[in-house]
């Protein structure tokens, strides 16, 4: 089973210090299919519909377009760097935060992925209950029980195939949902013309398109997913992946198309509740067994990513903090047990608050990561093969920037009405600005520390193709 991706790969270098070829990495279409499992989450339908209901369809679409552009630009930078340097989130955190950053970033990403697995699994539970009734604990157990073995198959050997098989069903499912709802309740332009009322003034978090953009900024954890998946790619495929796998095409499908479908369903199916559970229950009510099957397809695809990222980073956290070298299957089971326990506990509202705060942590991390990469474009850092001895315990500029930006973001989002819009944006600006400003001032406290006996290595760039 493969959970760790490139973590455990031993790279061989030639006389010039260049990395050996990367035949051990995933092929372009295998990685493409594995990553595109994220595109089918019911959350993607829900968040687009929620933005349209709150701010109007026009504002939601403008915010979505801006989101897709920004996500594509940022993930082009992150994916390219990660593929070239075998850089996972945990490994790259040593560079921007120091060795302590590996533990911090791993536990944050693990918990975030686990929380999302809880929410997406709960959608399937709700759909089962809407179709058959029954107890929550039983359906939760069934959902976790069928999801866990999928991860045991490994991202390289199974998840790409599974998501490849389910991809046509996902595409057909979107079409079927739209046609079915339209035929049953009638087609109209109401979903395109919805307006919620007077625009919010800027001081209260408006305009609506900016509030929409900021809401999607809170899901920047998917950029961390990008880095962990991109680290599995071949360097010769970097151009393909930065064009199609991790940038504009993926975000058009994941955010754009899903949002439009969610908006259409919300304003077409009478009485449909604007929530993930409401959408799934509405589809089961509308379509019966077909709706249940589609929800199973959608949620199985997204939860392969959530379970994989959760278990992989939980393993990284355990190994770093406790020195526990245990089989990958152990961490898969541990993460699944945590997911099941959280699905049973009545703590949804607390998880939502935790995710909001973790969204601030994640957006700050991403801002620092992108800033670091752009400021170091003249050299290549092979984080995947450099050992811990190359890094200091703490990278002071990175830690200061992350902590200050996180405090600013949490205070703004928690204490002010307009904070939901401006808090995440302020987090990104503060994190990037502080890191860029502090690096030259505190250079002696930066993360890299290269022993004389182990010279800094550069990696070969990908061939032009």
UniProtKB/TrEMBL annotation:
InterPro entries: CodB
Membrane-spanning ranges: 31-54, 60-79, 100-117, 137-155, 167-187, 207-227, 248-272, 278-298, 329-348, 354-375, 396-416, 422-438
Record GO cellular component, one term: plasma membrane
Coiled-coil portions: none
Gene Ontology terms for molecular function: cytosine transmembrane transporter activity
Alphabetized UniProt keyword annotations: Membrane, Transmembrane, Transmembrane helix
Organism superkingdom: Bacteria
PANTHER family: CYTOSINE PERMEASE, CYTOSINE TRANSPORTER CODB
The protein's name: Permease
Native source organism of the sequence: Nakamurella leprariae
């Amino acid at each position: 089973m493969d959970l760790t991706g490139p973590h455990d790969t031993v790279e061989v270098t030639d006389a010039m210090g260049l990395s050996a070829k990367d035949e051990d990495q995933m092929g372009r279409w295998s990685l493409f299919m594995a990553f595109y499992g994220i595109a089918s989450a019911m959350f993607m339908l829900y968040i687009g519909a929620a933005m349209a209901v709150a701010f109007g369809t026009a504002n939601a679409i403008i915010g979505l377009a801006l989101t897709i552009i920004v996500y594509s630009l940022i993930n082009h930078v992150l994916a390219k760097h990660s593929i070239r340097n075998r850089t996972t989130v945990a490994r790259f955190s040593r560079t921007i935060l120091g060795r302590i950053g590996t533990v911090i970033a791993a536990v944050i990403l693990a918990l975030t992925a686990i929380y999302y697995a809880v929410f997406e699994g709960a959608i399937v539970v709700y759909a089962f209950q809407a179709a058959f009734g029954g107890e929550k604990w039983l359906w939760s157990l069934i959902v976790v029980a069928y999801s866990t073995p999928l991860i045991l198959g490994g991202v390289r050997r199974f998840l790409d195939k599974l998501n490849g098989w389910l991809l046509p069903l996902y595409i057909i499912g979107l079409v079927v949902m739209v046609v079915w709802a339209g035929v049953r309740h009638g087609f109209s332009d109401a979903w395109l013309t919805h307006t919620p009322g007077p625009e919010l003034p800027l001081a209260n978090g408006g305009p609506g398109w900016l509030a929409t953009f900021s809401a999607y900024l809170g899901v920047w954890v998917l950029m961390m997913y990008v880095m962990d998946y991109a680290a599995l790619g071949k360097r010769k495929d970097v151009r393909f992946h930065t064009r199609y796998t991790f940038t504009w095409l993926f975000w058009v499908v994941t955010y754009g198309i899903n949002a439009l479908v969610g908006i259409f369903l919300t304003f077409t199916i009478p009485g449909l509740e604007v929530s993930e559970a409401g959408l799934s229950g509405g589809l089961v009510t509308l379509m019966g067994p077909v709706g249940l099957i589609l929800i199973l397809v959608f949620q199985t695809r997204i939860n392969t990513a959530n379970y994989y990222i959760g278990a992989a980073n939980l393993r990284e956290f355990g190994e770093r903090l406790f020195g526990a070298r245990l089989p990958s299957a152990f961490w898969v089971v541990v993460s699944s047990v945590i997911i099941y326990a959280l699905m049973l506990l009545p703590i949804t509202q607390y998880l939502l608050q935790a995710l909001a705060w973790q969204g601030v942590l994640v957006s700050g991390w991403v801002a620092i990561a992108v800033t670091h990469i752009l400021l170091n474009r003249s050299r290549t850092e092979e984080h995947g093969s450099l050992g811990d001895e190359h890094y200091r315990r703490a990278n002071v500029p990175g830690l200061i920037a992350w902590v200050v930006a996180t405090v600013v973001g949490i205070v703004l989002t928690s204490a002010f009405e307009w904070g939901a819009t401006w808090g995440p944006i302020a987090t990104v600006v503060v994190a990037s600005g502080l890191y860029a400003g502090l690096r030259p001032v505190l250079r002696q406290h930066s993360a890299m520390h290269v022993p004389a006996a182990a010279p800094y290595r550069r990696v070969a760039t990908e061939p032009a193709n």
